[in-house]
Amino acid sequence: MTTPYGLEGRSAIVTGASRGIGLAVAEELSRAGARVCVTARDPDAVGRAAERLGGVGLAGSVADPAHLRELTELALREFGRIDVVVNNAATNQPYGPLMDADPDRWREAFTVNVEAPLRLVQCAWRAWMGEHGGAVVNVCTEGAGHVGPNVGAYGTSKAALLHLTRQLAGELAPKVRVNSVSPGLVRTEMARFVWEDAEDALGAGLPLGRIGRPEDIARAVVWLASDAAGWITGADLLVDGGTRVRSAHSPADTVHDRLRTRAPDA
Questions:
Q1: pLDDT tens per residue across span 226-260
Q2: Which residue in 59, 83, 85, 205 is deepest, having the highest Cβ count within 10 Å?
């Protein structure tokens, strides 16, 4: 059955794709007809994801430039083309006040959240997209547009990724479209420390009445990667359940309350 997305016969690379948003994106791309190459750090999880998708996978860290080159080579070797790149892998470390941030961990946040997406796009551009075109979607965050307690490194690096998205959109047009999706709070392992034991309360504080699910973000990513969004580049699609308009719905600011009192596993 033909889908409205126009991804049949195309191939995609998705980072951070062994669970959560990344896995949901890879699954949605596969359903839309794309062949998918996935990566994440856990070899077993990558293997399971690749088998589940009928695609290929390569375990490793996106912070390693050699891994990104190998990933690109794998996708091109297996599929003969690279039409879509989804930069989803991210770290929320270091967590805490910026005055307490270890400079090395701060640097790591930018390596994973900003430098790695650029390097992977460079690899895909040189291998295929520069000649044949394609689409890039970066997963940013609703929090890139404002400040929040203890998430300074994450938010600042994602704000840099947002600007990188726009810069690349300008530089790579018209061959390659580059957009981003900015999720609000989503029910993932990475955000578990925020929503665990308070999912209903947090959802009740949003205009749409619930926190996000990985598939909410996946559908937005796949739409931006598809021909259905063929006249869109340099855009950021906010997928947040109404977080930005919450003040007109409810005065509660419970997400920030949770950020002040909880921390992710290091």
A1: 999 999 999 999 999 998 887 666 555 566 766 66
A2: 85
Q: Which structural domain, as residue segments, surrounds residue 141?
A: 11-261
Query: Does 34 reside within a domain?
Result: yes
Q: Is residue 266 part of a domain?
A: no
Residues in the chain: 266
What is the per-residue pLDDT across 109-132, written as a single tens digit (0 to 9) for each? 999 999 999 999 999 999 999 999
In this structure, is the dihedral angle defined by the CA atoms of residues 162, 102, 185 and 265, taken in order, positive or negative? positive
In one-letter notation, the amino acid at residue 48 is R
CA 200-206-209 angle, to 5 degrees, is 55
Residue 2, domain member (yes or no): no
**E-state strands within the chain:** 11-15, 35-40, 56-59, 84-87, 134-139, 176-183, 236-239
Structure token pair of residue 168: 């690349």
* Catalytically annotated residues: 154
Residue 1 has pLDDT above 50, yes or no: no
The domain tally of the chain equals 1
Cα 76 to chain center, whole Å?
21
Mean predicted confidence (pLDDT) in 80-97: 97
Any domain includes 1:
no
In eight-state DSSP terms, residue 173 is T
Q: What CATH number is given to the structural domain containing 217?
A: 3.40.50.720
Report yes or no: 252 and 34 within 8 Å, Cβ to Cβ: no
